[in-house]
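Researcher: Re-running this chain for the archive, since the previous output was lost when a drive failed. Same request as before.
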Amino acid sequence: EVQLVESGGGLVQPGGSLRLSCVASGFTFEDRAMSWIRQAPGKGLEWVSGITQNGGFTDYAESMKGRFTISRDNAKNTLYLQMNSLKSEDTAVYYCALGFGPSGARGQGTQVTVSS
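Model: Regenerated structure tokens:
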């Protein structure tokens, strides 16, 4: 059974930083591309970033480029998202998901709130 458990969310002021983590189990993590997606209040799912199996290629939604960094540690079955220069519009529930896109199985999410 695929399990994805996100953590690291919280309340942060505009301009601040957070690092999200996602621990994966139930499948061979190193064999799967992974993504971060998010859902803001009252909005649909939005793809944030993706990373290939060995981390050799990453991509970001336009509004996240230069602020967010996706990475992974295959030895720890863990996916990360470093988020810097956070804005109020980044407020959302963040999910890690299987695959390089918004449609794969995802975890329960972690809430990120950017507010002063």
